[in-house]
Specification:
heterodimer, A: two-stranded antiparallel ribbon, 12 helices, B: 256 residues, mainly alpha, disordered N terminus
Chain lengths: 290, 256
């Protein structure tokens, strides 16, 4: 008989006399059971915890669990800079609305400079020009779902296709970010563009892609081409205006033409990065719209 | 029946009886216990050695590592249950399933407009979500689709994703259990949608609009609870959008 079964049966025994030497327990608790019910409940379930070895084992187990959690947190922190990432997710609804509007219509915006606060850029919540990661991540996931929807309406859907689309889009994103990093390195640009910034900028094109696919679903091929070309143009202008401030030197950024091979090279690099966006936008969406 | 204790091969039962017995009984019974020790004639630690050990076991048990994490004072009001279950604690109490809380949380989900109380998610309760997931699978089964694996897979991946996103977006972190609990509770309207799918096909204008309404309902409730529990301002729509994507996946399962 296991100890827990024994314990339960002991509780069920009716009030017996206290005289028997073989009786295992005193039954004075008939009234105390209701009163001390909550107090009795934990030991009933944890009666095996009453052994001294078990209590040490439990204490060891809890410390082991918390140590394990610490190790996981530390290692995650080594590979993924969580605090840096938190900056890119410090957004609110107003910022996201304005940024989406900017991505689709960047022509009227005048001031593209990111505001700084004592050497650190201001959080995206307070500055519309700051890059964020919320929009790219959400746009990426939405793109995969909309692609699944588009394929579903053409009866080409299966759950594996979703995985295929996701991995191919992710692969192209990684290729693009690596190419940009490589070219920035080769041109030896002194810029404060971090890798996460580049991921964010490359992720902004998914917004235009989603708009294109949705219009293709609603209005057919003409709608798709129309809206996709508009979004391509917008993202081209957006990237040029944003990257110009980051890659080019101060003078050229203000519009003053500065002669010199270095600045020309940087201008070409900016235009190349910006021109890649419409290319990818078309490449990743044309097979979804029939 | 003799003394089952002395007949038992191991003396573990004696330890249990004697260690547990003084835990909630009066000092009078403790003396009787020491008498029993002498009667049984076994080698047991001295009575005064019981005191520190019983304190240790009681404090360990109060931390509640077996039961629900927080010692909920509401349990005391359920002491009347003990009488109706042959003087043993009800199974639900031991398992930590509190129907009143489950009902309260369900009502919060069903009314997405009423602002939520931030403290309802203090205890991670996974029984309600498990029931709703099973109900969703069952209603899908009634409609002829065996998608239990998909339901569990999507909910696991979705919970992971939303947990990561909320940890990055909010100042205070959130635990995985809390995320799973909230998302599971807000799955209830999806069960309504899939039960509608049993009676008529959802592939049409009516079905699509119904699905969209249900997705909006689920995600609004979920974001409302997250916002109030994590005190995030100005981010309700931002939290509602990924929840809407997740519930959209469930709706895809239900509709197609």
């Amino acid at each position: 008989m296991n100890p827990d079964g024994g314990a339960a049966s002991k509780r069920r025994l009716p009030a017996a006399s206290m005289a028997s030497p073989h009786q295992l327990f005193d039954d004075t608790s008939a009234g105390a059971l209701g009163r001390g019910y909550a107090a009795q409940q934990p030991p009933a379930a944890g009666s095996f915890l009453a052994e001294p070895v078990s209590s040490f084992a439990v204490a060891y187990g809890t410390t082991l669990a918390s140590q394990g959690k610490e190790i996981v947190d530390r290692n995650i922190d080594r590979f993924i800079p969580v605090t840096k990432l938190k900056y890119y997710f410090a957004v609110d609804t107003v910022y996201v609305g304005r940024k989406l509007g900017l991505l689709l219509f960047p022509f009227m915006h005048q001031d593209w400079q990111v505001r700084y606060q004592q050497d650190t850029p201001v959080a995206p919540r307070f500055d519309i020009n700051a890059p964020d990661l919320y929009i790219p991540v959400m746009a990426f996931i939405t793109y995969i779902l909309v692609a699944g929807l588009a394929l579903g309406t053409q009866n080409r859907f299966s759950p594996d296709i979703l995985g295929l689309q996701a991995s191919s889009a992710l692969a192209w994103l990684i290729v693009e970010v690596l190419a940009t990093l490589l070219s920035l390195y080769l041109v030896t640009v002194n810029t404060d563009l971090t890798t996460i910034d580049l991921v964010a900028f490359s992720g902004y094109k998914y917004v235009g892609m989603i708009v294109g696919i949705v219009s293709g679903l609603l209005f057919g091929k003409t709608g798709y081409y129309l809206l996709l070309s508009w979004c391509c143009l917008s993202i081209f202008v957006f990237m040029i205006r944003t990257l110009r401030l980051k890659i080019l030197s101060e003078a050229a950024a203000e519009g003053v033409l500065v002669r010199g091979a270095k600045n020309q090279l940087r201008m070409y690099l900016t235009m190349a990065i910006a021109a890649l966006q419409p290319l990818f936008m078309y490449w990743l969406t044309f097979h979804l719209v029939r | 029946m003799g003394s089952p204790v002395s007949n038992r091969a191991g003396s573990r039962g004696d330890f249990l009886v004697n260690f547990r017995a003084p835990w909630n009984w009066t000092g009078k019974s403790r003396k009787n216990n020491s008498r029993q020790l002498v009667c049984q004639g076994q080698e047991l630690p001295q009575p005064d050695a019981f005191v520190p050990l019983e304190m240790l076991s009681s404090s360990q048990s109060y931390i509640g590592q077996i039961l629900q994490p927080t010692y909920n004072p509401e349990f005391l009001s359920h002491s009347s249950y003990a009488d109706s279950f042959d003087e043993e604690p009800p199974l639900l109490e031991e398992l930590g399933i509190n129907f009143d809380h489950i009902w309260q949380k369900t009502l919060t989900v069903l009314n997405p407009i009423k602002p939520a109380d931030g403290s309802i998610m203090n205890e991670t309760d996974l029984t309600g979500p498990m029931v709703f997931c099973l109900a969703l699978g069952a209603t899908l089964l009634l409609a002829g689709k065996v998608h239990f694996g998909y339901v569990y897979g999507i909910s696991a991946v979705g919970c992971l994703g939303i947990h990561a996103l909320l940890n990055l977006m909010s100042i205070a972190g959130v635990s995985y259990g809390c995320v799973a609990s909230v998302l599971g509770y807000c799955l209830l309207p999806m069960v309504v949608l899939s039960s509608c799918a049993v009676f008529f096909s959802l592939q049409g204008i009516l079905g699509t609009s119904l699905a969209l309404i249900i997705i909006g309902w689920c995600s609004l409730s979920a974001s409302k609870i997250f916002i109030s529990a994590l005190a995030m301002e100005g981010q309700q729509l931002l939290v509602a959008y990924p929840c809407a994507l997740l519930y959209g996946l469930f709706a895809l399962l239900t509709v197609f």
